[in-house]
Amino acid sequence: MAQHVTTLHPERATAGGCSASGCGSKPDKLAHLPEAIRAKVKDHPCFSEEAHHHYARMHVAVAPACNIQCHYCNRKYDCSNESRPGVVSELLTPEQAVKKTLAVAATIPQMTVLGIAGPGDPLANPERTLATFRELSAKAPDIKLCVSTNGLALPELVDAICEHNIDHVTITINSIDPEIGAQIHPWIFWKNRRIKGIKAARILIEQQQKGLEMLAERGVLVKVNSVMIPGVNDQHLKEVSRVVKAKGAFLHNVMPLIAEPEHGTFYGLMGQRGPSHDELQALQDACAGDMAMMRHCRQCRADAVGMLGEDRGAEFTQDKIDTMEIDYAAAMERRAAVHAEIEAKRQAQRAAPPQTPNQAFVSVASIPRRRAELPSRSASRPLRIAVASSGGGLINQHFGHAREFLVYEADEQQVRFVGTRRVEAYCSGGDTCGEAETALAGTLRALDGCEAVLCSKIGIEPWDALEAAGIAPNGEHAMEPIEDAVAAVYAELSANGQPGERIADAALSA
Amino acid sequence: METLNCNRDRTMAYQITDGCVNCWACEPLCPSQAIQAAKPHFVIDAAQCTECVGDYAEPQCASICPIEGAILDALGAPVNPPGSLTGIPPQRIAEAMAEIRAR
């Protein structure tokens, strides 16, 4: 397995054959992966971009303790309006977590994955974390188990992880250089002492790299998360990407730093900025030459429940779960039926020819290589097109209901997913959370740089506001597969003169 | 001062303040099982706490605690004073709080 993992070639997905020639069928973005890995990730919403349109995940907050400090984290924080890693409302015992997982799996049959991600470090709470996994692997064998960790305690727990059938592990690796690491992680707790500075960063990095190698050797699928911190590790992450890929990580997820003064974190209070959408995308593209990149991460809470981008945690509080009667055997049957239905739908979507006359659009993971191979006749720049979707890979959400937009980049050769834009403030309520602003103004800002926004329906007020902002609203592709619709709109925009000029006119007259 | 001295004379013990966020990190580390989960926050049983003397070079609870000021030594002084763990200068926190409140 380790060999398979270390010899991945993401570029294969783009090199010739069906996927590059636009034969009408959609390429499987995981096509370059060995079959065993594809089977593991194909219905995992966090590991497969395509799967996240169809399947849901949940985190249980059983792991409160942490063994390191990160400058983007504040352990005092607990706000139900916040959605970001490390934040959680209700700490669970392993028994409560198991019951909650069964309740969610019975209620949301699309749920395929149970992760433990905090609010501290799951492996700094090995008893609580492993007890939860042990129970679940016995009681809910149809649920995939994952864990994410800072890696400090990973090497000593690799065997326990394997014993509990956890076959997806995420390691957060922000640097492989202790001098850079020390600027991100001020201390670690190691061998009964608090260690600070470069010495601490060196130990953390050694443990992370060792843990990664051990997992890869054992065939456990490893994703690496990195937080992009402009001026600190942004350039360095390209090297991180190269190294972790060589050691067997199969996916790299570069996430933007979230830092606001009201979060009370070092970076938030000291004025460290996060990256812009463009900076993040440029770094992801730079890393993509070496590594399969994840771009659909929603940086969710340690107790998130539901599809990525949604949080149904409020439906599953302890008092509500206590009143639920769960027949898991029946739930498992229903889940299997729902999954089969989803798979049939996915199969049909993949096989269906695009609904547009232009068949040259395909969706691939890595664009730069393709560009180099193309004749230089094409001078038009790629266009970013935002999409409102509530799942299923379709344009099926009302503009006003969207809490996030998926952003695609289209050019004459292809459509590719480049990221998501949240349209609610990280904090939308309370007197200490964020500034008051209208939701629409925030949405316009989030959609900055997009030429058009596709949705199932849209009201007059946002329509006018979008037009005034130079973003073409478009409700004509409702219920169509996202990538086909984006390709069609790109074609319309291109045919109607220079993209980026008065595209709104084109959309209006279309 | 008198009270503090009195405390010290009575026992060698650390204390947890209401800055505690109940993260459980300290509880399994205590060599004397002196730490208990409680409401509204964890507590150290002064009769059991040994300040880790004889077990560890450094007091374990205070060495893993992520919250500045949450653990006091026998003299009532924070083992991890403001700024010592997060690197955030205390003055900056005060300024930021004032800025946020002024909004």
Automatic annotation (TrEMBL), chain A:
Residues of the region (Disordered) are: 1-22
Q: Which SUPFAM superfamilies match?
A: Nitrogenase accessory factor-like, Radical SAM enzymes
Q: Where is the Radical SAM core domain?
A: 52-301
* CDD domains to which the protein is assigned, alphabetical: NifB, Radical_SAM
Native source species: Halochromatium glycolicum
Q: Does the keyword Lyase apply?
A: yes
Report what the protein is called. Answer: FeMo cofactor biosynthesis protein NifB
- Highest taxon of source: Bacteria
Q: Which UniProt keywords apply?
A: 4Fe-4S, Iron, Iron-sulfur, Lyase, Metal-binding, Nitrogen fixation, S-adenosyl-L-methionine
Provide the function of this protein.
Answer: Involved in the biosynthesis of the iron-molybdenum cofactor (FeMo-co or M-cluster) found in the dinitrogenase enzyme of the nitrogenase complex in nitrogen-fixing microorganisms. NifB catalyzes the crucial step of radical SAM-dependent carbide insertion that occurs concomitant with the insertion of a 9th sulfur and the rearrangement/coupling of two [4Fe-4S] clusters into a [8Fe-9S-C] cluster, the precursor to the M-cluster.
Q: Which NCBIfam families match?
A: nifB
Q: Which gene encodes it?
A: nifB
Q: Please state which protein family the record places this protein in.
A: Belongs to the radical SAM superfamily. NifB family.
- Cofactor(s) of this protein: [4Fe-4S] cluster
Which Gene Ontology MF annotations are present? 4 iron, 4 sulfur cluster binding; lyase activity; metal ion binding
